[in-house]
Amino acid sequence: MESSNSSFQLLQELISIQGVASDESRIKAFIKEYVLKHSSQWKSKPRIIDGLGFQDALILVFGNPRTTVYAHIDTIGYSVGYDNELIRVGGPKNIDGTILVGSDSQGDVEGELMIFENEYNQQRIQLSHERTIDRGTLLSFKPNFKETKEYIQSPYMDNRLGVFVALQLAETLENGAIVFSTYEEHGGNSVGACAKYLMNTYDVFQALICDITWVTHGVVHKGGVAVSMRDSMVPRRKYLNKIISIAKDSGIKFQLEVESAGGSDGSVLQKSDLPIDWCFIGAPEDNVHTPQEKVYKKDIESMIELYRVLMNQL
Amino acid sequence: MESSNSSFQLLQELISIQGVASDESRIKAFIKEYVLKHSSQWKSKPRIIDGLGFQDALILVFGNPRTTVYAHIDTIGYSVGYDNELIRVGGPKNIDGTILVGSDSQGDVEGELMIFENEYNQQRIQLSHERTIDRGTLLSFKPNFKETKEYIQSPYMDNRLGVFVALQLAETLENGAIVFSTYEEHGGNSVGACAKYLMNTYDVFQALICDITWVTHGVVHKGGVAVSMRDSMVPRRKYLNKIISIAKDSGIKFQLEVESAGGSDGSVLQKSDLPIDWCFIGAPEDNVHTPQEKVYKKDIESMIELYRVLMNQL
Amino acid sequence: MESSNSSFQLLQELISIQGVASDESRIKAFIKEYVLKHSSQWKSKPRIIDGLGFQDALILVFGNPRTTVYAHIDTIGYSVGYDNELIRVGGPKNIDGTILVGSDSQGDVEGELMIFENEYNQQRIQLSHERTIDRGTLLSFKPNFKETKEYIQSPYMDNRLGVFVALQLAETLENGAIVFSTYEEHGGNSVGACAKYLMNTYDVFQALICDITWVTHGVVHKGGVAVSMRDSMVPRRKYLNKIISIAKDSGIKFQLEVESAGGSDGSVLQKSDLPIDWCFIGAPEDNVHTPQEKVYKKDIESMIELYRVLMNQL
After folding, report:
1. Which domains does chain B have, with CATH numbers?
2. Complex-level ipTM
3. C259 contacts in B (CB within 8 Å)?
């Protein structure tokens, strides 16, 4: 069994595949292929659920699941509007000079994001390009993966890193489900359909949201994985207490997050009519929603470790 | 078989019937009666689904449906508050002097909308009327249908025109479903219940949103029906590509829309836990959400034609 | 059979139990215990539905239900963030000097809310306390129940009073359901799961939202219970008309509310894909979302009476 845990090559590959929210078919195909290729070496071989009724989402079911891990496979980006205007998909931070890539009917597209401001301080975001790009073309940050001894910095750590962690977890998971969800960054979807399927088919009422959070004055690099006690939504206290108790007993380094803003696949579950408990657990990153999302490597390790323990004990 | 396509009398009738969001029972009854009267002459006779569990929505099922057309039957308007204050239902544009109609326990109501502004630029909207109208009375723009050689101008082209198009489509539809939905302009509802019913009963996972869009600098009168690549929500790319490909092959005049704002029954599907693909397709109108909504007649023709082709090939 | 109607001791007890949204397990346990203790003396003994699949909500089913009463058991409050910062749960009005209570790993917590404003008029809310309270601790207004001849004033009349009314109603209810729902003040939830259960199991398509509304210039103390014709959401007109007609015939004192803002468990139903009619009916209160919520006692009486009539006739 390869120790992919100690290497971030898979993460770099995941980041190289475009998957702006609404257009997740390629990253989904990559993940499915990866699972088909590697799962024979995993501790338990998962059932794969996808296709009609699941859009571009993918579910892995291991043994008798009690808890589902949600890792969203979409990213933020831009739609090309009329005359190369740019419209955000999700909430990318508009930074002048950011290089965006994609492709349309004329071939590959690469250009710089430019910000124009009018006399009323209203911003218009434009792609600098020699030709008019097809309407509706989806663009994303140009991949730019950097690994140092301590950190990884790259666009789309949110949430290719969550996907990476879920795939590490898959290697040893015996009972549990993993949902690779879509549309998290814009509009929310597929989470409800997958959660309903898992609830109706396997009686799964517990969820963990495997995603990347923000470095703030309360949650810091080198503090271990963050267990979020709230963001804009508040998880159910009984479930939260159980998770924190397991985390404390595990000896794994973690920090408690209490924020007033932000949302995740957990918010989609909270606002649905599904009685499913959820909690967000993920490493913190700096430079959120920019091409320089930066995560401390040992925080990733504690994230993988805590998921292993929780999926076993919850 | 009458060629109602070349005549807009039915459209004018549809517009004459009040149906402010939450109060769609009369327009629903009119549509049901129309279907019962005319469907024997249609190519395929639909099953009619309505009543308990569907509120004031109405579903027509033709043959073996793969795709559902959603045309909302509600309109924007106003609730009468305390002392003839007006509170918006949906997003009507408040224009001083607009004539509003309705009825309460004392009989018919007709009066002018008046805008009062205080020293802090806060607006209060008031109905000018000799008596105090019953609390909660629903008012709508006074019908004022105008047809020229090229254009139709009227209140509530959004979305009586979508309903009209769906009824034209019904004449030749062999396999497909049509949902006449409610509450689109305020709060959203009935779409989810109908979509779930059609998914569970007929395995329908595809939706087309038959509604009217906005003339902007990218979408224009005389450009043909608009296929929307996004508004505030972004439809799934795989489904969108299939639709655009069919539209291109059809030779029917259409234009691609890419907007950053606005929503539709498609947004309700997107935010639900139903794994249903959707795309908004409709003629563009000027003077949105005013009593002078204006649509180019040949754009309506291309809308009807494109729906016929899509319902056949999707 | 005790006439708890004439005494507000139960209301005071309900208010003394903490239940900030997301943390409703104790108030739920209290209500369940109350039902188990008293229901043998009720006109009809309800089935109790709770546990897995219902989170901290509780359902009572009497006879053959046609209508469900929703009374939310959660309250507004605060989460303790980093270094005793306070983050709102729901929409409490931040008032300098308000006394908040709760408990953490070190024991009971009681402290004053302090508002700090920086040079940009941005507010930071802080708990004044000698030690650093555990992250994520939930705090609520200190109980302070005051009863005069005419009024009751207390924190959390919204919605312990709705719960109280539902428990009075339970004493004589023969056919109907009562849902003690959670998370109404923050995020919304459990209502959908309970409504779906009651719809699928008992064909219940009608809902009444048993909650407290606001005194405004149109809805006043001593005007009787308020039947809400709209808030931010608009209930279906057909259902509303039926309710108003029954209320008029009953002779019970009531007033019609027409507001542009606010929401309730009814909004959750409206935005769900459940085809369930809803209407908000409740006594009005002053000093909304403060520790001094004040309700006129005879308005409570008319609220209980109207619920009895409606649950019988709807």
Report:
1. 6-75+145-313 (3.40.630.10), 77-141 (2.40.30.40)
2. 0.95
3. 81, 87
